[in-house]
Design brief:
CATH class of chain B: Alpha Beta
Number of strands of chain A: 6
Distance between the termini of chain A: 29 Å
Number of domains of chain A: 1
Oligomer: heterodimer
Order of helices and strands of chain A: EEHEEHEHHEH
Largest sheet of chain B: 5 strands, antiparallel
CATH topology of chain A: Transcription Regulator spoIIAA
Helix content of chain B: 25-40%
Structural class of chain B: alpha+beta
CATH architecture of chain A: 2-Layer Sandwich
Strand content of chain B: 25-35%
CATH superfamily of chain A: STAS domain
Number of helices of chain B: 3
Shape of chain B: globular
CATH class of chain A: Alpha Beta
């Protein structure tokens, strides 16, 4: 799993490459901490996310709660079919903001 | 294959499964569903299972078939049926959401068939998924 960050339109975009599972979740959590500490609006780029398990969902939930508590937002985009299926089964597609593309995620209020 | 039942073992089983999936040209959707299911079940074995560090072992068998894929996970930890847990409430808001039980819920939904039995002092979990179109 690899993580990269960039900024667009005042939104911090964090790209996650590989998988978010029980093996990689601790490193992802650690990499997100400085972003969550400084950014208000964060978008997760899942274009190259292969699959996500509940350990990965736990990281997303923690990030969403943190940003919501500080008046910020968490968006995500670029989900493949498998990641979308996990979001739907878990009910996460109803509680997290998912967009089809980066442009739409960045433009969202 | 057999691996030690530790955090390293989870990654090894998933890496071995990904190799297998490439060799047999499994559809990406099927491969990813099994990657998720294996991660959930192995993480579960680690948290419920092993009495002392390095004490246990995990065996992982894959049966390729034209129509469906069967993966069997065997561990020698204390009796534990992962499918005995109740399904979580997935309708709660972000603030109220707890994550417990979600992993096994994912396994049930991503697979076409799951089963558990205690056999010869071991936990045996069998996962099956059809390789049909749309996967």
């Amino acid at each position: 799993m690899e993580i990269s960050t960039r900024t667009s339109n005042d939104i911090h975009i964090v790209g996650i490459v590989g998988s978010l599972d029980s093996t990689t979740a601790p490193a992802a959590q650690k990499a997100l901490e400085p972003v969550l500490a400084s950014a208000k609006n964060v978008a997760l780029d899942f274009t190259q996310l292969d699959y996500i398990s509940s350990a990965g969902l736990r990281v997303l939930l923690g990030a969403a709660k943190h940003l919501r508590a500080s008046g910020g937002t968490l968006r995500m985009f670029g989900l493949n079919q498998s990641v979308r299926e996990v979001f739907e089964i878990s009910g996460f597609s109803a509680i997290l903001s998912v967009y089809p593309s980066e442009a739409e995620a960045v433009a969202a209020k | 294959m057999s691996v030690a039942a530790d955090a390293d073992g989870v990654g090894k089983v998933n890496a071995a499964f990904t190799d297998f999936a490439q060799k047999y040209d499994l559809p990406a959707g099927v491969r990813r569903s099994f990657n998720v299911a294996l991660d959930e079940l192995l993480a579960n074995v680690l948290s419920h299972g092993m009495p002392g560090a390095g004490a246990g072992s995990l065996t992982f068998e894959v049966e390729p078939d034209k129509e469906r894929l069967t993966v069997t996970l065997i561990d020698d930890g204390p009796p534990f049926d992962p499918f005995s847990e109740a399904a979580p409430d997935i309708t709660l808001s972000v603030e109220d959401r707890a994550i417990g039980g979600l992993g096994i819920h994912l396994v049930r939904k991503l697979m076409d068939e799951v089963s558990y039995e205690r056999r010869d002092g071991r936990n045996v979990v069998v996962l099956k998924k059809d390789l049909g179109e749309g996967n």
